[in-house]
Amino acid sequence: MSQIGVFSSILLFTACGGTEEVSELEELGNQIAKQEVPAEMKPCLLTLDKEGVVVNWTAFKLSERVGVGGTFDSVIVTGVVPNQTITEAAKTAQFDIYTTSVNSNNPERDWKISNSFFGTMTNTESISGKIISLNQDGSGSVALTMNGVEKEVEIEWSVSTENRLKLSTAVSVNDWDAKPSLDSLNGVCTAVHTGPDGLSVLWPDVEIEVFADFKSDCE
User: Fold this and answer.
1) Which site from 77, 139, 203, 212 is most exposed, i.e. has the minimal number of CB atoms within 10 Å?
2) Is residue 64 located within the same domain as residue 16?
């Protein structure tokens, strides 16, 4: 008879028994509680690969909205707790995106973005934030703090078969009172932001994609 069967039999018997049977029941219960769950029966837990976090951005210049893309080389994520699902693990995530690590594969442009854009903001050594929600329908929201302003931003999310979480959104930097900083950057980039129409244009819109890889402890 299995231990569960013995446990049930003792329980039935003690309904009409005395303290001796109760003691036996408690002892058997303690023995069962102490038994380790076989490794093959333990749930797999997913843990964030901190080296596998990528933040990509696309900004737009010229009247024709020509995209200029890049990434940030330094991103710190905290608050992720191993869990059986990526969304449960990630829902408590907090992050800092360090603005001096901006990388568009053009050192001169990166220096201008770092100094004339982020460098003219208030307390923006990093763009900080946290995940607010990851809903079952693939929607969600995050809180982003930049230029001393915190805003809630709607996002879309998905998880690939390779345990990669993708978050995507589109924002306007004007929502963080950053128009003066945008004008500052456009001022030092006038030559490359001026198109055939003679207008120097740097749009406030930025598209953002975040990728975060998770590792399973069952692999």
Assistant:
1) 139
2) no
Residue 105 lies in a domain: yes
91: containing domain: 46-216
Q: What pTM does this model have?
A: 0.80
Based on the fold, state whether residues 18 and 90 are members of the same structural domain. no
DSSP secondary structure of 60-111: EETTTTEEEEEEES-EEEE----BSSHHHHHTT-EEEEEGGGEE-S-HHHHH
CB 204 within 8 A of CB 182: yes
Same domain, 197 and 166: yes
- Phi and psi dihedrals of 122, rounded to 5? -90, 125
Please answer whether residues 164 and 210 qualify as being in contact, where contact means their C-beta atoms are separated by less than 8 angstroms. Answer: no
Report how far residue 90's alpha carbon sits from residue 82's, in angstroms, rounded to the nearest whole number: 9
- With vertex at residue 115, the alpha carbon angle to CA 109 and CA 121, rounded to the nearest 5 degrees, is 130
pLDDT at 22: 53
* 95 and 22 inside one domain: no
pLDDT in tens, 111-149: 999 999 999 999 999 999 999 999 999 999 999 999 999
